[in-house]
Amino acid sequence: MNRIKLELEKKGLTQTWLAEKLGKSYNMVNSYAQNRRQPSIEQLFKIAFLLNVEAKDLLEDNNRILN
Description:
Layout: H1 4-11, H2 15-22, H3 26-33, H4 41-51, H5 62-66
InterPro entries: Cro/C1-type_HTH, Lambda_DNA-bd_dom_sf
Organism: Flavobacterium urumqiense
Protein name: Helix-turn-helix
C-alpha cells in the first residue's frame, strides 16, 4: 500500500501533474494513487523526488495495516 494520493492532496497537486512529470498516463498514476497497482522501486523514488518527500514516507507501515 502506498500514500501517493495523500501526499498529492497535502501538496495541492493533481494526479495529472504527476503523470506528466513521470511521463506516464493518467490511468497509470491513478492506479498508483488508488492502490490498484504499485509503482516500481525506481518509479517510487522518482515520485518521492517530485513530491519532495522520502520514498519511505510514501509507503504504509505494515504494522498499522495489520492492527
